[in-house]
C-alpha cells in the first residue's frame, strides 16, 4: 500500500521549543518543550480546557506561535512552504463534515490534493494511494457507499483513510473516538495502531486515560496549558498524576490482557480540579 516508509518516518522529527500559543492575547499553551517519538503513537491527555487541541493545532501549523517555535527536522515550521508541510503533516480535526452523497472513495481522494498542481494531475500513484488508504482502514467493501449510510466508527475510519491518503509521515487526530460507542472506538484505535506499525508517527487527543495507556506508546499529560508529565504510560501513570490532572483519587491496576495501566477513579479530592467540579455542580 502507499504509505510512509520506516526510513521516511524516522527522518521527520517534530518538536516544540519553548512553545506558547495564544487565543488573541490570552496564552493557552505556555512554554512547552516537546518532541514526538517517530513511528509511535503519542496521546495528549488532560482535563477539558487544558490546551490539548490548541497544542495539536500549533504542532500542525494551524496556529502561529505566540512565543517559541515548532521545528520539523530542525527547520522552523513557519518557514516551510505550505504544500511541503501538507505533504508531511496530516491533521484530522474533531468535527469534520462532508456533503451528503459523497462516497467513501470520493472522500479519500481529497487526501491527494496536496500532491496535485498545475503540472501534476491525477496519476496512477494517486489511485494506488487511495486504494492503499482504503485497505489500511479496512474500508475496501464500503468504498462506494455514501458516508451518511455508514456507522459512526465506519465514518471515522473513512476520515482517517482520507488523512492516510495524504501520505504524510506524521498524522494528527483530534479526539477521533468522541461520540463513538466502545465497539466503534476499538475500530478506530486499532486502525491507529496499525498506521504506527506501518511507519507513521501518530499524535491524537484522548480523554480516557485507560484507553490512552492501552493504545499509546507515549503520553503527554497536560494541565492548565503546561506539560506536567510525559513518557511511557507504565512509567508516568500514577495516582499522583491522576490527582494533579483531575483532582480525583484513584487506583491504578494492570490490564490482565495487555499489561497496560487501568485507571480506576474512586473519589474527588481537594484541589483545583475538585473545586472546579464543585462550582459546576452548584
From TrEMBL:
Query: Membrane: present as a keyword of the record?
Result: yes
Instruction: List the Gene Ontology MF annotations in alphabetical order.
Output: ATP binding; ATP hydrolysis activity
Q: Indicate what this protein is called per its UniProt record.
A: ATP-binding cassette domain-containing protein
Query: Which UniProt keywords are present, listed alphabetically?
Result: ATP-binding, Cell membrane, Ion transport, Iron, Iron transport, Membrane, Nucleotide-binding, Transport
Source organism per UniProt: Streptomyces taklimakanensis
Mind naming one GO cellular-component term on file for this protein?
plasma membrane
The annotated topology with respect to the bilayer is: Peripheral membrane protein
Q: Show the InterPro entries listed in the entry.
A: AAA+_ATPase, ABC_transporter-like_ATP-bd, ABC_transporter-like_CS, P-loop_NTPase, Siderophore_ABC-ATPase
Location relative to the cell: Cell membrane
In its UniProt record, which GO terms are filed under biological process?
A: iron ion transport
The protein's predominant localisation is membrane
Which Pfam family is one of those matched by this entry?
Answer: ABC_tran
Q: Which SUPFAM superfamilies match?
A: P-loop containing nucleoside triphosphate hydrolases
Highest taxon of source: Bacteria
Residues in ABC transporter domain copies: 14-249
Amino acid at each position: 500500500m502507499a504509505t510512509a516508509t520506516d526510513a521516511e518516518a524516522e527522518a521527520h522529527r517534530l518538536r516544540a521549543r519553548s512553545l506558547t500559543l495564544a487565543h488573541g492575547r490570552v496564552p493557552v499553551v505556555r512554554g512547552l518543550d516537546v518532541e514526538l517519538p517517530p513511528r509511535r503513537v503519542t496521546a495528549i491527555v488532560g482535563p477539558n480546557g487544558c490546551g490539548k487541541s490548541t497544542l495539536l493545532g500549533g504542532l500542525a501549523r494551524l496556529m502561529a506561535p505566540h512565543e517559541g517555535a515548532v521545528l520539523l527536522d530542525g527547520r522552523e515550521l513557519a518557514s516551510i512552504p505550505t504544500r511541503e508541510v501538507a505533504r508531511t503533516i496530516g491533521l484530522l480535526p474533531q468535527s469534520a463534515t462532508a456533503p451528503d452523497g459523497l462516497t467513501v472513495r470520493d472522500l479519500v481522494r481529497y487526501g491527494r490534493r496536496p500532491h496535485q498542481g498545475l503540472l501534476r494531475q491525477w496519476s496512477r500513484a494517486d489511485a494506488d494511494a487511495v486504494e492503499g488508504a482504503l485497505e489500511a482502514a479496512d474500508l475496501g467493501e464500503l468504498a462506494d457507499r455514501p458516508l451518511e449510510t455508514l456507522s459512526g466508527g465506519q465514518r471515522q475510519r473513512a476520515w482517517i483513510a482520507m488523512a492516510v491518503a495524504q501520505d504524510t509521515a506524521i498524522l494528527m487526530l483530534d479526539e477521533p473516538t468522541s461520540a463513538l460507542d466502545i465497539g466503534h472506538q476499538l475500530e478506530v484505535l486499532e486502525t491507529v495502531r496499525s498506521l504506527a506499525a506501518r511507519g507513521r508517527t501518530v499524535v491524537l487527543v484522548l480523554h480516557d486515560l485507560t484507553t490512552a495507556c492501552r493504545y499509546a506508546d507515549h503520553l503527554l499529560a497536560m494541565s492548565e496549558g503546561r506539560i506536567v508529565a510525559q513518557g511511557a504510560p507504565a512509567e508516568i501513570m500514577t495516582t499522583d498524576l491522576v490527582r494533579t490532572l483531575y483532582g480525583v483519587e484513584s487506583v491504578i491496576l494492570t490490564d490482565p490482557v495487555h499489561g497496560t495501566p487501568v485507571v480506576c477513579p474512586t473519589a474527588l479530592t481537594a484541589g483545583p480540579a475538585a473545586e472546579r467540579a464543585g462550582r459546576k455542580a452548584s
